[in-house]
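Key result, reporting period 2: structure in, sequence out.
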């Protein structure tokens, strides 16, 4: 073997060995460290723990408030500037009742709406995998445009990146939104004696996506829709409000109860789930209380205002109803049909991935 060829062969062998050793050392290092897994992105307990760790690192003194709610607040005097952001990696990207584009703009609008704000502008950032069909991208952008026009909330800025194939699963969308509010609906506002109301049946977004993944037939479509009109019509009556996306009502009600230092009790006789949603939950062994919605909100409200608020909400969705009460204590509980009580804990473990 000629010297040059021998030298090249030895170099390849050495580099290969170094690469193997490097990977072994890297994998060994990972085993000894905490890592991020799917559970951290499910909207449950580990999500909250991860967000808490991140915010502790980023925490600095500022004039922004409500930074732990759906949106942050900046006081402008007579009005409040409301600011939110979110990222969307949905699987599948097209489903009954919507697509990733509709969820992206709707989710951002709703995060502003549940804080009592009227959205005035959205930013749109796209990361697209090489080889993604241009027609699919066109459909996604058309969905965004349709909601933008219907709500009069313009997309005013953004960015687009294309990444190498197999470095991303199809497409990722990041949005940010700003709005203005005169009164803020904070997550810690629930009062003892308040009623828990819901704007319609819950969990239908999860059912729509699961039906596509597991290829079963269902009449249920994603509940994805903007909530601006519903909330603005009753905003003055609400003591707290949230949209039950990742982690469902199990997650958001535990957050409301924890921040307001109260107990929330739901009535099993008034559960806001369609029979088909409950059947799918039982079939797949997934807790229905963790099912996500993309066009519903849960709120707390003084008992004296329940009648007038439900009358208004039923104009938009006849399934709006009272589902529970705020009491003295802590935690979230379900009063069963037999009269017993069981806790509804914040979701733990791996939830359904890539719902929104």
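The corresponding designed sequence is given below.
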């Amino acid at each position: 073997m000629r010297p040059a060829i021998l030298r090249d062969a030895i170099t390849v062998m050495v580099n290969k060995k170094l690469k193997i050793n490097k990977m072994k050392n890297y994998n060994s290092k990972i085993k000894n460290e905490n890592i991020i897994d799917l559970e951290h992105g499910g909207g449950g307990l580990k999500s909250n723990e991860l967000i808490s760790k991140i915010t502790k690192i980023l925490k600095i003194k500022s004039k922004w408030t409500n930074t732990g709610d759906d949106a942050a607040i900046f006081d402008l005097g007579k009005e409040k500037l409301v600011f939110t952001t979110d990222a969307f990696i949905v699987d599948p990207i097209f489903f009954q009742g919507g697509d990733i584009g509709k969820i992206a703009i709707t989710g951002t609008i709703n995060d502003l709406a549940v804080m009592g704000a009227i959205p005035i502008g959205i930013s749109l950032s796209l990361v697209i995998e090489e080889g993604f069909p241009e027609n699919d991208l066109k459909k996604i952008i058309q969905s965004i445009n349709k909601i933008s026009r219907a709500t009069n909330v313009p997309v005013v800025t953004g960015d687009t990146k294309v990444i190498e194939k197999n470095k991303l699963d199809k497409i990722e969308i990041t949005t940010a939104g700003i709005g203005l509010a005169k009164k803020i609906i904070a997550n810690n506002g629930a009062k003892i004696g308040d009623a828990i109301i819901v704007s319609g049946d819950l969990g239908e977004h999860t059912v729509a996506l699961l039906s596509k993944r597991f290829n079963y037939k269902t009449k249920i479509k994603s509940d994805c829709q903007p909530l601006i009109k519903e909330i603005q019509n009753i905003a003055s009556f609400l003591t707290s409000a949230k949209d039950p996306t990742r982690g469902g009502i199990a997650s958001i009600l535990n957050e409301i109860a924890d921040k307001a230092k109260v107990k929330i009790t739901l009535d099993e006789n008034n559960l806001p789930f369609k029979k088909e949603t409950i059947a799918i939950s039982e079939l797949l062994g997934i807790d229905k209380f963790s099912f996500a919605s993309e066009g519903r909100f849960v709120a707390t409200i003084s008992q004296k205002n329940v009648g007038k608020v439900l009358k208004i909400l039923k104009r938009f969705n006849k399934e709006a109803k009272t589902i529970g009460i705020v009491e003295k204590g802590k935690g979230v509980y379900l009063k069963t049909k037999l009269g017993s009580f069981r806790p509804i804990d914040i979701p733990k473990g791996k939830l359904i991935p890539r719902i929104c």
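The chain has a mean pLDDT of 88. Residues 195-343 form a domain with the Phosphoribosyl-aminoimidazole Synthetase; Chain A, domain 2 fold (CATH 3.90.650.10). This case is discussed further under Risks and Mitigation.
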